[in-house]
From TrEMBL:
The lineage of its organism: Eukaryota, Viridiplantae, Streptophyta, Embryophyta, Tracheophyta. SMART domains: E2F_TDP (SM01372). Belongs to the E2F/DP family. Its main location: nucleus. Coiled coil: none annotated. InterPro entries: E2F, E2F_WHTH_DNA-bd_dom, WH-like_DNA-bd_sf, WH_DNA-bd_sf. GO terms for molecular function: DNA binding. Keywords: Cell cycle, DNA-binding, Nucleus, Repressor, Transcription, Transcription regulation. This is E2F/DP winged-helix DNA-binding domain. It comes from the Eukaryota. PANTHER family: E2F TRANSCRIPTION FACTOR-LIKE E2FE, TRANSCRIPTION FACTOR E2F. It comes from Salvia divinorum. It is found in: Nucleus. One of its GO terms (cellular component) is nucleus. Transmembrane segments: none annotated.
Length: 374
DNA sequence: TCCTCCCGCCACACG
DNA sequence: CGTGTGGCGGGAGGA
C-alpha cells in the first residue's frame, strides 16, 4: 500500500508545464536503483513485471531491460510469465563465480570463428545458458525453466554475462564499451553496424551495473577515453564469505601479484588476436599500471575480496575442452580482483546497499558453510 | 560535433 | 489470434 514513490514520474502527465524532460531522470541506471530499493526488502520473493512497471512509472519494455541484466548477475530469476523471483544480493557471489568458471572454460565464446570469413552476425551461442551446470538442485530437470533454446538468448542477458566475464576472466580492468563490443562478438575488423548496436546495449548494461556499483566509469589515464572498471564485491561488509566459497587456498597469494608488477609474468594469451586489438588500445596485460589506485585506499579496512579464486584445475597446458584449441596461460587472470577503495562520498543509494550486503552476509555466514559448487 | 542511450516499433515465442 | 518478450536502431539530449 505504500507506494514507494514515483520518481522520475512526469510520464503520463497531460499538461506538463514544468520539468520539460530531462533525459537523466529516465536512465536505466536510475530506474535500476529505484527497482532495487523497491524490492530489496526481506519478504519480497516474487516480483510482478506489471507491478514494477506501474510502481516505477515506466513502460514495461524498460522493466525487461532491467530484469534481464539483474538476472544475469543472479539477483533475480525468471519464474514464470510476468513473474520473477527475488534471489537477493546473496546470490551474486555464486553467480559471479559461475560466470567466471564458465568464462575460463570456454574463453570467449564464438569458438574460433572470426578467423577470417566467418562473418556470422551472431555466433557466440555455444556456451549459452547461464546457470546450467552446477546450478543447485534441479536434479530431475523437467523444470520448465530450462529451455533448450540457445537461440533465444540473443543479447542483453548474454551480453551482460559476457561483459562481466570480461572483467572476471581477463586481467584488464578497464574496458571501454567499444572494445568490449568488438571483443564480445567476432573480430574487430569490420566496423559494421553490428558493433554499433552492441555498443548501444553495452551502454544500457553499463548503466545498470554502474548503479549497482559493480563497475565504475572512468577514463584511461592516457587515452582519456571513457572506460569502465570492475568494482565487483569490493568494499562490501566482509570478505569472509569468500572463504566459504573458495575451496582452494590459493587466492590471496596471487592477489598480491597483480598490483606489483607481474607484468610479463605470463600474460594470458587468447588464441584469437581478438585481445590483441585490446592490447593495442589499452594495456591489457596484468595491471602494472597503477598510478593511483593504491594510494587512496582509505577505508580502515579495504577488503580485498577474492570471490573468484582460480578454484578450477590448474590448466597450464590446456583446458578440458575438446576442440583442440591452443593452450591458454591462465595464470595471472586471478588479478581480476584488486584492493579497492570507496570513499564515503557514496550516495544514499550505496548506504542502502551496504545495509543489504550486511543483511545477506549475516544470513549467509550464519547459515553455515555454503557448500561449494563444483 | 561526438558521445550517450531512451523510446518504442515490431518481430518472435507462446498459449 | 492475442499477449508477453525483448531485439534493434533512429534520432534527440547532453557535454
Amino acid at each position: 500500500m505504500n507506494s514507494v514513490s514515483k520518481l522520475a514520474g512526469a510520464v503520463t502527465d497531460s499538461g506538463s508545464k514544468d520539468i520539460p524532460y530531462c533525459r537523466k531522470q529516465k536512465s536505466l541506471g536510475l530506474l535500476c536503483s529505484n527497482f532495487l530499493s523497491l524490492y530489496d526488502h526481506d519478504g519480497i520473493e516474487s516480483i510482478g513485471l506489471d507491478d514494477a512497471a506501474s510502481k516505477l512509472g515506466v513502460e514495461r519494455r524498460r522493466i525487461y531491460d532491467i530484469v534481464n541484466v539483474l538476472e544475469s548477475v543472479g539477483i533475480l530469476s525468471r519464474k514464470a510469465k510476468n513473474r520473477y523471483t527475488w534471489k537477493g544480493f546473496g546470490a551474486i557471489p555464486k553467480a559471479l563465480e559461475n560466470l567466471k568458471r564458465e568464462g575460463l572454460r570456454d574463453i570467449v565464446p564464438a569458438a574460433d570463428a572470426s578467423c577470417s570469413e566467418k562473418i556470422s552476425d551472431d555466433e557466440e551461442d555455444e556456451m549459452c545458458s547461464d546457470m546450467n551446470s552446477l546450478s543447485q538442485n534441479d536434479r530431475s530437470d523437467s523444470s520448465s525453466l530450462l529451455k533448450r533454446d540457445g537461440r533465444k538468448e540473443k543479447s542483453l542477458g548474454l551480453l551482460t554475462q559476457n561483459f562481466v566475464k570480461l572483467f572476471l576472466c581477463t586481467d584488464m580492468d578497464m574496458i571501454s564499451l567499444d572494445d568490449a563490443a568488438k571483443l564480445l562478438l567476432g573480430d574487430g575488423k569490420h566496423t559494421s553496424m553490428t558493433t554499433r548496436t552492441k555498443v548501444r546495449r553495452l551502454y544500457d548494461i553499463a548503466n545498470v551495473l554502474s548503479s549497482m556499483k559493480f563497475i565504475e566509469k572512468t577514463h584511461h589515464p592516457e587515452t582519456r577515453k571513457p572506460a569502465f572498471r570492475w568494482l565487483g564485491l569490493t568494499g562490501k561488509p566482509d570478505s569472509s564469505i569468500a572463504d566459504s566459497l573458495i575451496p582452494s587456498d590459493s587466492k590471496k597469494r596471487i592477489f598480491g601479484t597483480d598490483l606489483t608488477n607481474a607484468t610479463t609474468t605470463k600474460r594470458l594469451r587468447m588464441d584469437e588476436d581478438r585481445f590483441k586489438i585490446l592490447k593495442a588500445h589499452n594495456q591489457v596485460q596484468v595491471k602494472h599500471e597503477n598510478e593511483n589506485e593504491d594510494e587512496t585506499i582509505t577505508a580502515g579496512k579495504s577488503y580485498q575480496f577474492g570471490p573468484f579464486a582460480p578454484a578450477n584445475p590448474p590448466k597450464v597446458g590446456d583446458s578440458h575442452d575438446g576442440e583442440g584449441k591452443e593452450a591458454v596461460d591462465w595464470e595471472s587472470l586471478a588479478s581480476s580482483y584488486r584492493p579497492q577503495y570507496h570513499n564515503q562520498a557514496l550516495k544514499d543509494l550505496f548506504s542502502h546497499f551496504v545495509e543489504a550486503w550486511q543483511s545477506w552476509y549475516s544470513e549467509v555466514a550464519g547459515k553455515g558453510p555454503m557448500q561449494l559448487m563444483s
